[in-house]
Request: fold
Amino acid sequence: MAYKHVEIDQEYKTISFSEVSFERDVHMIHRWMNEAHVFPFWQLNIPLKAYKRHLLKALKDKHQNLYLGLINNEPISYWEAYWVEGDIMESMYENKPYDQGIHLLIGETDFLGKGYALPLLREMVSLQLKEKRTKRVIAEPDIRNKKMIHVFEKCGFRPQKPIKLPDKTGLLMICERDQFERKWRNE
Reply:
């Protein structure tokens, strides 16, 4: 899928995304869901058998696509790119047709705090905006997850309001296509 060479820590790295494969990825993603920096926000630190059911259901959900984010072909992150229409978020704000949303986590602890989240997020939003009718991408990170909120803001998302979801209080954030393209035009 999409490949981009970016400079991170004064080195060029290749960012790419791969669709999640149940057989190949379920054990790795389950391990990530049990990492101390992930489970407070995703709440999927459940037994493997239950997680397998969860992932199969998510893979069958036609309103979203699941991806691994890779650095130099090494999987380090998990992504859910979804259409707002048909999602619980549809009733949480004044959405527009073709709005998309994003969920993400950096799973591999060796890659935490090294500047990978922002370039990965920027590339995923760029992929979502390849759908010309999409004018906005939203996110709703857990309101306690200050690090991810900061990354979303650096990418071009603007905080809107706290929202109550079944599993968390999120911060609704919106990234407008025009603003995103202006911000990253020369990158």
Observations:
- Residues 48-60 form the longest helix (13 residues).
- Residues 16 and 72 are 8 Å apart (CA to CA).
